[in-house]
């Protein structure tokens, strides 16, 4: 199965001080060992960059652009990067309209549109509740024990 990694998984996988660090790394490792196809999309990278380079005092990781780029390069080697297609905008617009999506949740709808567009069946995320409204998406939550 194809599994999209949500941005929060990438962030927690490199943020060693996070309480979710081990859960993120373990979930990614288990899926990889089970030969699941782990994928990312450009939006995940955009969101990662935003948080990774944001100063810590503003709830970011405070990484330099150089270090953030090194992390992105690593992610692109580890996971399949699925490109945005010409259909993505129309699919996203249909989703936000049909689901009455508002505010920050429009970003999640764009991830779902990318999943539909590429036939990605599952999402690995710490925020499963934000995606339950969408049909046909299997949600995988890391074990935080």
Automatic annotation (TrEMBL):
Organism superkingdom:
Bacteria
Q: What Gene3D superfamilies does the database record attribute to this sequence?
A: 5'-nuclease
Q: What is this protein identified as?
A: PIN domain protein
Against InterPro entries, the record matches this protein to: PIN-like_dom_sf, PIN_dom
All residue ranges annotated as the PIN domain in the record: 3-136
What's the short name of a Pfam family annotated to this entry? PIN
